[in-house]
Write a structure and sequence with these properties.
The protein is built from 11 helices and 8 strands. The chain has 242 residues and is an alpha/beta fold. The chain has a single domain, classed as Aldolase class I (TIM Barrel). The protein has an 8-stranded parallel β-barrel with strand order 1-2-3-4-5-6-7-8, surrounded by 6 helices. Strand 3, helix 4 and strand 4 form a beta-alpha-beta unit. It is globular and about 50 Å long. It starts with a helix and ends with a helix. The model has no long low-confidence stretch (mean pLDDT 97).
């Protein structure tokens, strides 16, 4: 059984609202710092890339990482050059991690080489920083498609594979996470790829159900912020108030 603090340490505390502004993000970052001060530090905050500089400066004395969604989140449409440039600007601001969305159009078209090449292009910008690739499992639906998308993201250089954007499609599911965990479990021992569960994880019980699946396939040592994350906006507050 994992404690609430152990669960909290896996969380990417998230604010990805259409109405986010400097004032609301400043409050959000203050909340992340207050969690840390109360003994419930999160692994990272995750926000839109235009708030990169604000977050990096605000959290510079904290152990909390700064992650951003980029590459024209949540749909990954648009010119690749502009999507890459958005990542470059965030990286220049000093963010630690970038979450992008897999090219689902190319995936559906069977253009797997292009899917891999895009991920490689993103990873090429951040060789020493984490690239999380969102599969959008609620759209992919079947285990076969989720498995293939996981394999392509990893082939492209993903440091983490992530379930969902939490936007247009259903979020994480136990079945999707199990499929992704099995793909990671089949990798050579020298290849380290993390897993991020995102979308719909709101309670301690929700988190424990996912951790049970992860531990089953990847072992207890995998349940660590370096290899496992939970993307959530309300989970930490719920953990502290339960």
């Amino acid at each position: 059984m994992y404690t609430k603090k152990e669960v909290c340490a896996l969380v990417d505390l998230t604010s990805l609202n259409a109405f986010d502004a400097e004032t609301s993000i400043n409050d959000f970052l203050e909340q992340a710092l207050s969690f840390e001060q109360k003994g419930f530090p999160v692994a990272a905050v995750c926000l839109f890339p235009n708030f990169s500089s604000l977050a990096v400066k605000k959290l510079e004395k904290s152990k909390v990482n700064v992650a951003v969604v980029a590459g024209n989140f949540p749909n990954a449409q648009g010119f690749l050059s502009t999507r890459l440039n958005e990542c470059e600007l965030a990286l220049e601001a000093g963010v630690d991690e970038v979450d992008i969305v897999l090219n689902l159009g190319a995936f559906d078209s069977g253009n797997y080489a292009h899917v891999v090449e895009e991920v490689q292009a993103y990873k090429g910008l951040m060789p020493k920083r984490n690239l999380k690739v969102i599969l959008e499992t609620g759209y992919l639906k079947t285990a076969e498609r989720i498995k293939k998308a996981s394999e392509l993201a990893i082939e492209g250089g993903a440091d983490f594979i992530k379930t969902s954007t939490g936007k247009d499609f259903p979020g994480a599911s136990i079945e999707a996470v199990e499929t992704m965990a099995k793909v990671i479990a089949d990798l050579p021992s020298s290849q380290k790829v993390g897993l991020k569960i995102s979308g719909g994880v709101r309670t301690y019980e929700d988190a424990l159900a996912y951790l049970e699946v992860v531990e089953k396939h990847l072992g207890k040592d995998f349940v660590d912020p370096n290899t496992l994350r939970i993307g959530a906006s309300s989970l930490v507050s719920n953990l502290m108030n339960e």
